UniProtKB/TrEMBL annotation:
The protein's name in its UniProt record: 7-carboxy-7-deazaguanine synthase
Entries under InterPro entries matching the protein: 7-CO-7-deazaguanine_synth-like, Aldolase_TIM, rSAM, rSAM_sf
Originating gene: queE
Pfam families: Radical_SAM
Co-factor(s): Mg(2+); S-adenosyl-L-methionine; [4Fe-4S] cluster
Similarity annotation: Belongs to the radical SAM superfamily. 7-carboxy-7-deazaguanine synthase family.
EC number: 4.3.99.3
Length: 209
């Protein structure tokens, strides 16, 4: 990468764009909502069950000017979801400001492992044991989404729920490959602990991106 390009990436004026697409939000509070997804490359959290491991290496995704990203998004939707990878690897301030200047609702899906930057209407915090969230984001998260891969994850979920603000909505979501095994346990757990809700990856059931 050229030095000038790297400097723009470091400033958040260019970002390693993996993909962008218009679809239906499949998970969490906004499931069923039409939204434009912006997937930013780069992640070192390294969840073994990640379903977009091709997003991890930022170097294989072309640095893209944020004006181009905003112009593309503006053709489709006023609800924008920025995901990854781990988008907070980069400075999200410049991109989110331009999106907000267009009157868009801007959401993020993040592990919270890095400093929170950007202007957000909705923060979906999905913490990972490998690299825990920064303290700041717990107070600002609108929803907590904990992925349940095995029974030990229920304990982790409770530990994370103790850290978020009182208005944060709590979700348990089965890891896709373990959904048949873990779903009954999640249902039982939510019925016994109704502060939690079940989140499903409905877009996979609908066979859409």
């Amino acid at each position: 990468m050229q030095k000038e390009t790297q400097e723009l990436v470091n400033k958040g004026e260019m970002l390693p764009l993996m993909e962008e697409f218009y679809t239906i939000q499949g998970e969490g509070f906004h499931k069923g909502t039409a939204a434009y997804f912006i997937r930013i490359g780069g992640c070192d959290v390294g969840c073994h069950w990640c379903d977009v491991k091709e997003s991890w290496n930022a170097d294989i995704h072309p640095p893209t000017e944020i004006n181009q990203i905003v112009d593309n998004a503006d053709k489709y939707s006023k609800t924008i979801v920025i995901t990854g990878g781990e988008p907070l690897t980069w400075d999200m301030g410049p991109l989110t400001k331009k999106l907000k200047d267009k009157g868009m609702q801007v959401h993020i899906e993040t592990s919270g492992a890095y400093k929170l930057t950007g202007i957000w209407d909705w923060i979906c915090l999905s913490p990972k044991k490998i690299k825990l969230p920064t303290p700041e984001i717990y107070e600002k998260a609108h929803e907590l989404k904990v992925i349940i891969y095995n029974k030990n994850d229920f304990k982790f979920a409770e530990e994370q729920a103790e850290k978020v603000n009182n208005n944060c909505i709590l979700y348990l979501q089965p890891e896709w490959s373990k959904r048949d095994k873990m779903m009954s346990q999640i249902v039982d757990y939510v019925m016994q602990n109704p502060k939690w809700k079940v989140s499903l990856q409905t877009h996979k059931y609908l066979n859409i991106p």
